[in-house]
Write a structure and sequence with these properties.
Helices cover 30% and strands 18% of the residues. By secondary structure, the chain is an alpha+beta fold. Strands 2-1-3 form a three-stranded antiparallel sheet, covered by helices on one side. The longest helix is centred in the first third of the chain and has 19 residues. It is globular.
């Protein structure tokens, strides 16, 4: 369950040149490295589709997602935090078409944390 509740701590809008997911996860334990890379890639791609991310500075939203292999899309199953940011995040995840599929060791209920801040 801990793996499925992996949180991105101190998530911020990526700088102009954020570290590659593999580089950022270099110190992760081998069992967690794949999930770390996947979670960072999801965060990067969601925020890339989030054109007004700066509008939500100082707010926070934790989004629990699951992957539908039937539809090859993500479903938001829970949000917690600022209502406006959570609604926008839900919309972005629901409409983004370039999100990576989960790793094979994926379990339902991955949490992505969004906390827009000045970079």
């Amino acid at each position: 369950m801990a793996l499925s509740l992996l949180l991105l701590s101190a998530c911020q809008m990526p700088d102009k040149r954020p570290p590659a997911a593999a580089e950022a996860c270099a110190n992760a334990q081998p069992a967690d490295k794949t999930m770390c890379i996947y979670t960072r890639e999801m965060y990067t791609r969601v925020t890339a589709n989030f054109f007004d991310y700066d509008h939500y500075l100082g707010q926070q939203c934790d989004v629990t997602i699951e992957y539908s292999s039937v539809y090859q899309r993500y479903n938001v199953i829970r949000t917690q935090g600022n209502e406006a940011l959570c609604l926008k995040t839900w919309q972005v995840i629901g409409t983004a078409e370039d999100l990576p599929p989960p790793p094979t060791n994926y379990s339902k209920g991955v949490v992505l944390s969004f906390r827009p801040a000045k970079g």
